[in-house]
């Protein structure tokens, strides 16, 4: 295997940040590097993705969504 000086990986279209304290708790959503809003559940992730023009969103596809600080079922701090 050949390794380079910097790691390469395919970035996901959607990045879901760790859960932030709030009432209710939320996660910041970025799509293609742009912050598009906050999500309080998985439905909000779909809503923001569709509003950004992504027609098909598979929350289990790491090329589509990167979950930071917990997976799709983590919505509490």
Lateral arrangement of strands in the main beta sheet: 3-2-1-4
CA gyration radius, whole angstroms: 14 Å
Distance linking N and C termini: 39 Å
Biggest sheet record: 4 strands, mixed
- Succession of helices and strands: EEEHE
Shape: globular
Strand segment count: 4
Number of helices: 1
Helix content: 10-25%
Structural class: alpha+beta
Q: From the structure provided, what is the oligomeric state, counting identical versus distinct chains?
A: single chain
- State mean pLDDT (0 to 100 scale): 89
Low-confidence stretches: 1-9
Strand content: 15-25%
Task: Give a verbal description of the structure.
It is a single chain. By secondary structure, this protein is an alpha+beta fold. It has one helix at residues 42-51, and strands at 14-16, 27-31, 34-39, 65-67. Residues 1-9 have low confidence and may be disordered.
Topology, pairings included?
Elements: E1 14-16, E2 27-31, E3 34-39, H1 42-51, E4 65-67
Parallel strand pairs: 1-4
Antiparallel strand pairs: 1-2, 2-3
Short description:
With 77 residues, this protein is of the alpha+beta class. The chain has one helix at 42-51, and strands spanning 14-16, 27-31, 34-39, 65-67.
Keywords:
1 helix; disordered N terminus; 22% strand; single chain; alpha+beta; 13% helix
